[in-house]
Design a protein that fits this description.
The complex is a heterodimer of chains A (354) and B (173). With 354 residues, chain A is mainly beta. Chain A has 2 helices and 26 strands. Classes of the chains: A mainly beta (354), B mainly alpha (173).
């Protein structure tokens, strides 16, 4: 190989890598710009155990003080029970799953012991069973399509669905198969009504408190199980308006993001007195390198929505957790294919009497 | 004696012809391999550039969703297929073929570096390569690109000796 061609090859290589590096550092710099808020960070939580689930398709379906239930997107008729005392995993199949009137590809499990719900918002259908027998039966004449639903009693649900008149996501209560419309609407439309209001419903074990957490703005709404608003609170960051850019597809049939959306809140979890938010934004008093290696969870007082403090959970394989639950003294975080169990200290929200 | 001589002669002739074949085969093989590499690159760039242009609207949206290219998506959506077309033209014409090989090498290096850096940012990132290539996972994609970088490298190496036949002296004899 001639010297000239070696030099030319090197120049080509450097040019290729250089252009991308420049783009990369431009974006990395942008991510480090101050966000205009600060956190009260407490020490990170001690790790208790890591459980390798081997596959990345699990989601948290529910829990009680003894068991964590996992659903699987790849095997939707499978219930995975994780014993919280000895941390062993047992699998159970829903009986005669193939005969049930749901589309398994789009249905998810929601387990509120002693009941199990099979949610399919597109067909739509909700099936219901006792956890002891696992023989789900449809809830009579379910006609309401929904994005997301959570049970608040044996047969009543809070659903997040689409209001065709107002052209926005709304929250409604469905009890005994009948929809009780919430007037005025609880969710506030900012742009399009679908993307700007996107978020998730969370309830605590007693279902006394329901929280809707927006993904793209610093807001959460606390309600009771009849959807009466207790308060609307702001998370500590400054994003009161959703920062999203939308594009229509060529045929005008679908809307999608035109730029990476600014996700503010990634997930939440609700106990009887604390609301935890997995935040996506770095506070100005956090060290960028430390923030890159961890995920941050903020604690809010459930009674008032007031910010209390924050703590870090480590990334695993450079990945942040997807979702988490708090049960007694344990915080269980689901990473792609790992469950990591942490122990909460008294200042992080573990009940004082335990 | 005569028989042995003729045997020796035959053997010698075989050796000579073998030697000649040894001289020529690599050159023909090199030529074929180089043509194959050049044609593969032309096929790759033409295919992806055309599918990007045909589906330009989607391509622009996808670039907009990329954290690295979001702010330049309007320009990049034309620039990338234009460069790909230009490089395939350079490869088609013999006079610019070597330059085209260098450009292909640089372009594939750039695409690979892009894949590596984009997987460092979390979030939903669609691939914008165009056509069926879109269905590859990021890892498969990286391997695909790295093999094309290797091909480009081999192509440049093969192009190196000017095509004047130089007799090769074999050490085996």
């Amino acid at each position: 190989m001639k010297k000239n061609s070696a030099i030319l090859l090197f120049i080509c290589f450097a040019a290729g890598v250089g252009i991308v590096l420049a783009l990369y550092y431009k974006e990395a710099k942008r991510l480090e710009t101050p966000n205009g808020f600060s956190r009260r960070l407490t020490s990170s939580l001690p790790k208790i155990k890591k459980i390798d689930l081997k596959y990345p398709h699990y989601y948290i379906a529910g829990f009680d003080s003894l068991t964590l239930y996992l659903g699987s997107y790849a095997a939707p008729a499978l219930i995975n029970r994780l014993d919280l005392r000895d941390l062993t995993l047992i699998q159970q199949r829903i009986e005669q799953a193939e005969t049930l009137p749901v589309n398994w590809r789009q249905s998810t499990l929601d387990i509120r012991p002693p009941f199990l719900y099979l949610m399919d918002g597109a067909t739509p259908n909700i099936l219901f069973s006792r956890l002891s027998s696992v023989q789900p039966i449809p809830i009579n004449e379910w006609r309401h399509g929904f994005y997301h639903a959570i049970p608040v009693s044996e047969t009543s649900f809070i659903v997040c669905d689409y209001d065709t008149l107002l052209q926005t996501r709304t929250l409604n209560k469905i009890a005994e198969g009948a929809k009780q419309k919430t007037i005025p609407p609880i969710l506030q439309k900012q742009y399009d009504g679908i993307f700007c209001t996107d978020g998730r419903l969370y309830a605590n074990q007693t279902a006394k408190d329901i929280i809707y957490l927006y993904y793209y703005r610093n807001q959460f709404i606390c309600m009771d199980s009849a959807l009466r608003i207790k308060y609307t609170a702001n998370a500590i960051d400054t994003n009161s308006m959703a920062k999203i850019k939308l594009e229509e597809s060529q045929q005008g049939t679908a809307t999608t993001f035109g730029a990476p959306p600014r996700i503010v809140n990634r997930a939440g979890c609700l106990t009887e007195d604390i609301f935890y938010i997995l935040s996506n934004l770095r506070a100005d008093n956090e060290i960028p390198d430390q923030f890159r290696e961890n995920c941050v969870i903020d604690r809010y007082d459930l009674k008032t929505g007031r910010y209390l403090s924050s703590f870090y959970l480590p990334r695993i394989n450079n990945k942040c957790l997807n979702s988490f639950i708090v049960s007694g003294k344990l915080l269980i975080a689901l990473y792609e294919q790992d469950l990591q169990v942490f122990e909460l200290g008294a200042e992080d929200g573990a009940p004082a009497h335990q | 004696m005569f028989k042995i001589d003729s045997g020796l002669f035959k053997h010698m002739r075989n050796l000579v012809s073998q030697n000649n074949r040894d001289d020529l085969t690599p050159i023909i093989m090199k030529e074929n391999l180089l043509n194959l590499i050049v044609n593969l690159f032309i096929l790759l760039f033409l295919y992806t550039a055309i599918s990007k242009i045909l589906d330009h609207h989607e391509f622009r949206i996808q670039l907009g969703q990329s954290p690295l290219l979001s702010s330049f998506s309007d320009y990049a959506a034309w620039l990338v297929p234009a460069i790909e077309l230009m490089v395939s033209l350079m490869l088609i014409f013999k006079r610019s073929r070597l330059a085209g090989l260098y450009a292909s090498f640089a372009l594939m290096t750039m695409f690979s570096a892009y894949i590596i850096s984009i997987t460092r940012f979390t979030g939903f990132i669609p691939c914008s390569c165009g056509g069926v290539l879109q269905n590859m996972s990021w890892n498969t994609h990286l391997i695909f690109n790295l093999s094309f970088i290797t091909l480009g490298f081999i192509g440049i190496l093969l192009y190196e000796p000017p095509r004047i036949h130089k007799p090769v002296v074999s050490n085996n004899l």
